[in-house]
Structure formats: C-alpha cells, structure tokens
C-alpha cells in the first residue's frame, strides 16, 4: 500500500471520528437540553402557582412557603402579565434602558417574545377564568450554555483534526526529506569509487588503443555518470544559482534524449531566437527536464509520437512547457502526480516528479504543474521561473 493511500485513510478516519464525536455530542446535548427545559417548566409551574396563591392570599394567610418559592428563582427569566398585558412582576431580566418608561417597554417586549415562543403559563384567578395572569418565562443561562456547548465542542474537534492532519503531513514530509537526502548522498558516495576506477581504465585504454572509435563514447558515458553523481550530491544542499541560458540547457537535454530514444519519437523545440537568461542550477534543472521527457517517452508506450519543448519569456517570468502525445493523465490523478510514492507505472517508485517539484520550488523558487492533460491525447507540464 502506498504512503499516500495510508495518509488518505488516516485523514478519512480522523474526519469520521470527528463527525461521530460531533453527532454524539449533539444528541447528548439535545437530550440534556430537553430534560432541563422540562425541569425548568416544572419549576415555573410551581412558581406560577405560588404567584396565584400570593394574589389570592388573605391578611391572615401564612405566606412564608409561597415567598420562599418565589425567591428561590434566581436563574430563570420570568415576567408576569395581567389580562391587559401590563407587567406586574419580573425577575432575572437584564434591562438596558435610559429611564423607567423604557425599562417597562423592554420587559414587555421580552414577555411578548416569550409568549409568542410558547413559553407561557396562564393562571386563572377566579372560577370564571375571566381574570388571569400570564407567567412568561425564558431559558436560563445554564440551558443556553448547554445548547451552545456542542457547537463549541464541534469547532474544537475540527480544529484538533486539522492540526493533527497538518502535523502528520509535516512530520512525514520532514522524515521523507531526511530519507531522500541520505539516499542521495549515499548514492553519490557509492558511485564515486567505480567512476574513478572507470576513468583510470579509460585512460589506460586510450594509451593502449589511441585510435579506437569506441573510447570517446565510453568517455561520454563516464562523464554522464559523473554528472549523475554530482546531481545526487547536491540534493539536500542549497547550491547557489547562477545566470544561465535556458536555450542552451534545453538544447542539451534535447540532444541527450534524441540519441537515447526510439526513432519513432520526435523531439521538437520552440525557442525564441535570443537567449533566455535566468538564475538556476543548470545540472539540477536539466534533471527536471530529463525526468519530464522520460515520463513522456514512457507515456507513449513504444508508439510513435512527439515531445515538444516550448520556451517563452515575459517581463517577470520564463515559461517552459513540455508537451507529449502520450496516453495522458486521468483527472483524478492530476492532483497526486507530485506526491511522493504516487505512480501509475508497474515498476515505478513515484519519486521522479516529486523530486522535480522539489528542485523547482525549493531550489529555484518557481512553480511546476500540469497545465492540461487529456486521456489518449497527451499531457503538458508547465514550469514558471522568476527572472529577477
């Protein structure tokens, strides 16, 4: 299983876990809110009965229990209205008004809102039910907090998931970077010894067979190996970019690929007449273009086709496009082509485009992306480099 698949599974697991926690929290909160609302209504029914008892009390009636019930409500907002809608009593109401008249209006408005929401208990004061009071009540602060809490919890859980995924990706990327740098340095080191030996042998062969036509080609291959070892040794370091001609670099790649690919594949160029100069590490940048060209050759699968290298510039950027007539990339795979370990080849490692992306973005501060791709028609990769 590829690392990208494992990361995707971890992210799906974290998101599903967050959703389950949020749903469970909402259900529990809803149940608690419902129970507390029922409990508060029961309290208000008792409080309303106490108000009726107070209004019907005679001079010699013991009101100590009634007053105790009324005074114990310190949390639930309540407004008592007479049958004409006038405020006769209120408790636990926050009032922000300039004068007494405005205060009465604020309390009346809140009572009307409570009554319209169905939070009202009507208490008849006589048998004919013509005289009554409306006890309007609202939600206590505790009830409001319990209703809002699951949404706060959901936000915290989602924040945790985002931070966890970011930390996972950052940690894995840092680990991969260390592995790539270590492998690159070790590869360059291991190549050094046989390359030195081959250079010595070619020197001996040149002295022994000075007119042999194969020796110059062997010397070119050894120089190629030296270039590869040099590229690997630069991975992990930050080589200083120097001004170089993109025309020359691209022509060098075309010349190299043209001699090592099938005659059925045509290398085409579309360069401006004047040199396009940018700061770069020519050796590493050649590696990027070679990777794109080799992938293009693989995408053609031995069929006839062409690879076109296009170069242009404007005031701020140099633009390189590598277009092939291969099998193309599926839309669902385009966003993954630069991910380490992702490959559509049976024997691929999924590191070529990932390294190309790193070389362009980290070493050259540019951008590389799939400009367009159509299955069965081909793909265009685009590289943008700053000229300043």
UniProtKB/TrEMBL annotation:
* Listed GO MF terms: ATP binding; protein histidine kinase activity
Q: Which residues cross the membrane?
A: 12-32, 148-169
Record protein name field:
histidine kinase
Tell me if Disulfide bond is a UniProt keyword of this record: no
Q: EC? A: 2.7.13.3
> A biological process (GO) annotation for this entry?
phosphorelay signal transduction system
Q: Which UniProt keywords apply?
A: ATP-binding, Kinase, Membrane, Nucleotide-binding, Phosphoprotein, Transferase, Transmembrane, Transmembrane helix, Two-component regulatory system
Q: Which domain of life is it from?
A: Bacteria
Histidine kinase domain location is: 186-388
Q: Which reaction does it catalyse?
A: ATP + protein L-histidine = ADP + protein N-phospho-L-histidine
Reply yes or no: does the keyword Transferase apply.
yes
Native organism: Prevotella histicola F0411
User: Known PROSITE patterns for this protein?
Assistant: HIS_KIN (PS50109)
